Amino acid sequence: MTVKDIPTIGQEIIDEFALFSDWEERYQYLIDLGKDLPLVAPDQKTDDRLIKGCQSRVWLHAELRDGRVWFTADSDAIITKGIISLLVRTLSGQSPQAIIDAELTFIDRIGLKEHLSPTRSNGLVSMIKQMKFYAIAFRSIEQTKSHE
Amino acid sequence: MSVRSEFPILQRTVNGKPLVYLDNGATVQKPQRVIDAIGKYYAHGNSNIHRGVHALSQEATMAYEAARETVRSFINAALPSEVIFTSGTTDGINLVAQCLGDMLQPGDEILLSGMEHHSNIVPWHMLRDRKGVVLKFIPVTDAGELDMVAFRELLTERTKLFSITYVSNTLGTVNPVRDLIREAKKHGTKVLVDSAQAVHHIPIDVQDLDCDFMAFSGHKMYGPTGIGVLYGKQALLEVMPPYRGGGDMIKTVTLERTEYNEPPLKFEAGTPHISGAICLAEAIRFIQQTGWEAIQKHEAALLTKAVDVLSSIDGVRLVGTPKHRSGVVSFMIDGVHPYDAGVILDKLGIAVRTGHHCTQPLMDRFGIPGTIRASFAVYNTLDEIDRLAEGVRKVKQMMA
Questions:
Q1: Where are the alpha helices (DSSP H) in chain A?
Q2: What tens digit of pLDDT does each residue of B214-241 get?
Q3: Which of B255, B289, B323 is the C-terminal boundary of a domain?
Q4: Cβ <8 Å between B337 and A56
């Protein structure tokens, strides 16, 4: 399966959001994205996958398959979940190095930067950090393997 | 109310809409006279206090001590020395936990309630871990009131301190503190009242209440952040050890030992928040000149309308239905996470608070992740409650 690179997916998301004329359409789209995707099965919402935000809770799971990192994530708040689905769409299936290097500027470009502010305490900032930590951990596993 | 025009920030727009500020439980906006007082102090009056012989220092000292007298009169304390300037409610509670806490023995009991803000729980957890005191909690009823039967059972001769919020920051419940204090006194229990959410809504007379301590914050009563008050009875303040060591809190220091100053200076180590105290006094004058009768009448009308309008919206459930309510209405929208509601309301220019409001045990009690909280001040209007209701309907429509 071929996966597009992060900047390409980011640009696709920017283009999609360019179709919306106001905040209401943007947020309605996010809400719909959030509703459509039951990203993590309820029995997998365990504490070891939980990232506690002050406002909303986020669950994140990652696996390494064929040199690529596959993320599943979820939240109890729908708007948070909508943004999560964009992040998963962008980063899941990428190589560890690409995830570590990812800048995710598209979030800013589509007018959702405020959701990634640390003061929002919605768990998203911690989630991106955790996604990068997974990528760093998986990269070191890969490097260890290649030296064996 | 006509005072609205005195608050410049209320002229702002947010996300292109006129600001509807309903987060007064977190902090209250400042009238121009308080904002001006801050500038005036630094432009004309700035000096360190208490030891300077020069004119500026004497003026600043007089203004600072005049502010103490303004607070004394505002809460009807017997003496100005019973008014300690702190950094806020949290600081005041920590002061009592530290200083009175030092005088407690392992096994002594401290009574709290299930509706306390984290700032009236965590300092006691820390004291329990330090001193081996035992914490007890009055349960909260479904209506969001204290379980009075349990209160009387939990209160015993072992209860050395009872620390209770006057008004719940999450539910708006006004606790019957006068009656609670009277009960506590029968057991010789000392009482600390957390008045952070009360002091700008309800006139306070510490002598009439007969509490031993009361803590509140300047920024929730139209004053600056970083300044607060701990009221304490003189006799207790005299026997309590000091909180922090430093300048101003001493009489004499040799290399071997320190002789402490008298209260309140014993508890005000270092350079205090001089401008904060002076501007807090200005905020008190704002409240006094607006008048309690006008404030209470207007705020009661806001609350009545908020409760009526919100509870008439299909799918909206009030969290806490206390008989006596002040300042706050908390609610949930069926099937909607409070965070999502908060985000959409913000887009509409409406500032509410969502989440657990630093009362996680209370949220656990009601089995909810958080609430949407609208909290009011004297400058809010009845029209703003209509804007909130429209916003809630918009949230429901978008989330449907």
A1: 6-18, 23-36, 78-91, 96-101, 106-109, 124-147
A2: 999 999 999 999 999 999 999 999 999 9
A3: B289
A4: yes
pLDDT over 70 for what percent of chain A? 92
- A positions 15-74 inside 8 Å of B (CB): 23-24, 27-28, 31, 54-57
| Interchain pair B339, A77: CB under 8 A | yes
Whether residue B103 sits in one domain with residue B194: yes
Quick check: B398 and A54 CB within 8 A?
A: no
Measured in residues, chain A has a length of 148
Same domain, B217 and B324: no
Other Cβ atoms less than 10 A from the Cβ of B171: the count is 27
Residue B105's CB is within 10 A of a number of other CB atoms, namely 9
> Does residue B264 have a cis peptide bond before it, meaning omega lies within 30 degrees of 0?
yes
Predicted-complex ipTM score: 0.87
pLDDT score, position A53: 67
Contact across the interface for B340 and A57, Cβ inside 8 Å: no
Catalytic residue chosen out of the listed positions A3, A41, A54, A141: A54
Interface-testing mutation among A52, A59, A74, A79, with chain B (most B C-beta atoms within 10 A):
A79
Would the CB atoms of A27 and B15 count as touching at under 8 Å? no
pLDDT given for residue A118 in this prediction: 67
State the first-to-last Cα distance of chain A, in angstroms, to the nearest integer: 27
A contacts of B355 (beta carbons < 8 Å): 54-55, 121
> Which residue from A minimizes the CA distance to B347?
A23
Reported pTM:
0.92
Model pLDDT, residue A125: 82
- Chain A residues with CB-CB distance to B337 below 8 A: 56, 76-78
Are B337 and A77 within 8 A, CB to CB? yes
Find chain A residues with C-beta within 8 A of B343's C-beta: 27, 79, 115
Pairing of strands B353-355, B83-86: unpaired
Q: How many domains does chain B have?
A: 2
Residue pLDDT, tens place only, B139-178: 999 999 999 999 999 999 999 999 999 999 999 999 999 9
From CA B79, how far away is CA B231, in angstroms rounded?
10
Domains of chain A: 6-147 (3.90.1010.10)
Residues 6 or more apart in contact with residue B101 via CB below 8 angstroms: B127, B130, B131, B133
B199 and B269 part of one domain: yes
Classify residue B28: in a domain, yes or no: no
Residue B358 known to be catalytic: yes
Whether residue B336 is contained in a domain is answered as yes
Q: Are A27 and B342 in contact (CB < 8 Å)? A: no
- The overall average pLDDT reported for chain B is 96
Say whether both B7 and B66 belong to one domain.
no
Q: Closest residue of B to A56, CA-based?
A: B339
Tens digits of residue pLDDT in A25-65? 999 999 999 988 766 777 778 888 888 766 788 888 999 99
Domain boundary among B268, B289, B310: B289
> Which token pair is B116?
């306390």
- Residue B398 contacts A where some CB pair is shorter than 8 Å: yes
Q: Structural domain of residue B317, as residue ranges? A: 2-22+292-399
Query: The tokens 């607060």 sit on which residue?
Result: B228
